[in-house]
């Protein structure tokens, strides 16, 4: 009975304590609670790693063979440090890059921000771990990018602006009352419930073979509202132009059935 108890205390109890501490941290410091606090999320990851490492070392220290090996390793710590440093060079680079990304007051992004890193598809920052940054794209794809790459990359952050704008283009036929078409376009955009900011300016983007392309910006407070708002505006513009007799040019196919 005593041997079983000693075995439990030496080898099982450290991992049970580590599991309980990990469970409590995940419960009281959830991702939702830490949203917008990327430095705390990264610090949480470091603490969890230290807890499990301490549990493993505590359990292994009860093994005589490991204790002797550990004493030998400490005695030759200089050589061991060089070997471990070379072996874990990539891992350490990711850890230190993660610290730089999350601890800086001028950090380039936070959890929930919409960003684009180099040539990767833009998406939302889901998490940052000791090794990688997690991005969720618009297609619900999860991208894991090593922190060392993120730290050296060019990052575009779309969330730091207070609003998001996207251009809406629509063509009208030559001969159209351009001032009236521009007025209708500005009215439709301004009337949309998700539109924010001032009345948009409508400009001539190009003069094409079939018509004149007008452009205006649809500005919304939240990026997630913008695609639907742009779709609503395009549909409403087609209705209003039809009511006003303004033609939207499009290619027509005419079939002629000739008789010899």
UniProtKB/TrEMBL annotation:
<keyword id="KW-0812">Transmembrane</keyword>
<dbReference type="InterPro" id="IPR049278">
    <property type="entry name" value="MS_channel_C"/>
</dbReference>
<feature type="transmembrane region" description="Helical">
    <location>
        <begin position="6"/>
        <end position="25"/>
    </location>
</feature>
<dbReference type="GO" id="GO:0008381">
    <property type="term" value="F:mechanosensitive monoatomic ion channel activity"/>
</dbReference>
<feature type="transmembrane region" description="Helical">
    <location>
        <begin position="78"/>
        <end position="101"/>
    </location>
</feature>
<dbReference type="InterPro" id="IPR006685">
    <property type="entry name" value="MscS_channel_2nd"/>
</dbReference>
<dbReference type="Pfam" id="PF21082">
    <property type="entry name" value="MS_channel_3rd"/>
</dbReference>
<dbReference type="InterPro" id="IPR010920">
    <property type="entry name" value="LSM_dom_sf"/>
</dbReference>
<keyword id="KW-1003">Cell membrane</keyword>
<keyword id="KW-0472">Membrane</keyword>
<keyword id="KW-1133">Transmembrane helix</keyword>
<feature type="transmembrane region" description="Helical">
    <location>
        <begin position="46"/>
        <end position="66"/>
    </location>
</feature>
<comment type="similarity">
    <text>Belongs to the MscS (TC 1.A.23) family.</text>
</comment>
<feature type="domain" description="Mechanosensitive ion channel MscS C-terminal">
    <location>
        <begin position="168"/>
        <end position="248"/>
    </location>
</feature>
<dbReference type="InterPro" id="IPR011066">
    <property type="entry name" value="MscS_channel_C_sf"/>
</dbReference>
<dbReference type="InterPro" id="IPR023408">
    <property type="entry name" value="MscS_beta-dom_sf"/>
</dbReference>
<dbReference type="GO" id="GO:0005886">
    <property type="term" value="C:plasma membrane"/>
</dbReference>
<dbReference type="Pfam" id="PF00924">
    <property type="entry name" value="MS_channel_2nd"/>
</dbReference>
<dbReference type="InterPro" id="IPR045275">
    <property type="entry name" value="MscS_archaea/bacteria_type"/>
</dbReference>
<feature type="domain" description="Mechanosensitive ion channel MscS">
    <location>
        <begin position="91"/>
        <end position="159"/>
    </location>
</feature>
<protein>
    <submittedName>
        <fullName>Small-conductance mechanosensitive channel</fullName>
    </submittedName>
</protein>
């Amino acid at each position: 009975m005593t041997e079983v108890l000693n075995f439990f205390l030496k080898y099982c109890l450290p991992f049970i304590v580590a599991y309980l501490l990990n469970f409590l941290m995940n419960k009281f410091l959830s991702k939702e609670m830490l949203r917008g606090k990327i430095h705390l999320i990264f610090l949480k990851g470091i603490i969890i790693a230290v807890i499990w490492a301490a549990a493993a070392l505590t359990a292994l220290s009860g093994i005589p063979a490991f204790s002797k090996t550990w004493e030998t390793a400490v005695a030759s710590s200089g050589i061991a440090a060089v070997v471990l440093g070379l072996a874990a060079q990539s891992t350490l680079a990711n850890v230190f890059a993660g610290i730089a990304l999350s601890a800086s007051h001028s950090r380039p992004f936070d959890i929930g921000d919409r960003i684009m890193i180099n040539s990767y598809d833009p998406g939302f920052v889901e998490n940052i771990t000791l090794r990688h940054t997690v991005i969720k794209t618009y297609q619900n794809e999860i991208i894991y990018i090593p922190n060392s790459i993120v730290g050296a990359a060019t990052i575009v952050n779309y969330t730091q602006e207070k609003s998001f704008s996207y251009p809406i283009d629509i063509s009208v036929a030559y001969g159209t009352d351009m001032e009236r078409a521009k007025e209708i376009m500005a009215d439709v955009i301004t009337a949309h419930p998700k539109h924010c900011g001032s009345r948009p300016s409508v400009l001539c983007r190009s003069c094409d073979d079939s018509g004149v392309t007008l452009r205006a910006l649809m500005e919304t407070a939240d990026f997630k509202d913008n695609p639907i708002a742009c779709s609503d505006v395009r549909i409403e513009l087609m209705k209003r132009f039809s009511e006003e007799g303004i033609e939207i040019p499009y290619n027509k196919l005419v079939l002629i059935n000739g008789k010899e």
